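Researcher: Structure prediction, please.
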Amino acid sequence: IERIAQTLAIACILDRRRAWFEHELHAQQQASAQQRDLLDNLLHQFRNPLTALRTFGKLLLKRLQPGDVNREVANSIVRESDRLKELLQQFDSAIDLTALPSTPAAKIATMDTAKPLLLLPNAQGKELCWVVDVLEPLLVSALAIATERELQLQTEIPPELPPVRVNSQCLREVLSNLLDNALKYTPAGGQISLQAGLEKERLQGIAISDNGPGIPDVDKKHLFERHYRGVQAQTEIPGTGLGLAIARELLEQMQGEIQVESPAINATPNLDHPGTTFIIWLPTTIDC
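Model: Predicted structure follows.
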């Protein structure tokens, strides 16, 4: 009996020790996953302004006459932008090499997913915001990139749009990601359109359409998952699969919605380039 009691006591101690180790392992895996998300978000947010900066430098070079003393400044902008782009690629490679093995689904389900994405604007600080004020600087950059890539960018923004109740920084991040995707996946000679002022009950919509390759049905259900790129992962078009996940997360925090249509809405039928339309819906009023 005494030996049985000792064996049971040892088994109990070992079981508690195992539970403690599992708890610590789970905590470390969760912390590592959050750190990975933090780095991913930071690098993704860095790419869009870097692309715009490089494009402005190249456009400046084209406009300056040979012998202009400012050409060296423009050259330096392009050169250092290329250097930063290379560093970003090195960061991506380093993160991939240090990524931990996949966490079991049961453990992932226990992670706290209600927290805002790290290093993103805090969407909780909502205020009355005019869409045109957020769009104007983004469209300046988008037009410059579209010009360099031989794309047409058309906009339809009605005057005197009513304000929406959102976080302006978050809205800028959402629109920047969607415009970046449209510019990236539309082939040379293609067209991108932005239409503001769409309406449905208590929501105001902004639609961004392109005539790129479109989104296969098999990819649509995974479209907003982090790091998911679907068929685009097999192409040479660079990407991290984070832009849409970040956009949806921020919109949900602002009580907004995102809608995707492929083929694009009102697009001319084209099997090779069906295009895609993303519509974001923003609250004009919020219940307190």
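Model: The chain has seven helices and seven strands.
Researcher: Thanks, that helps.
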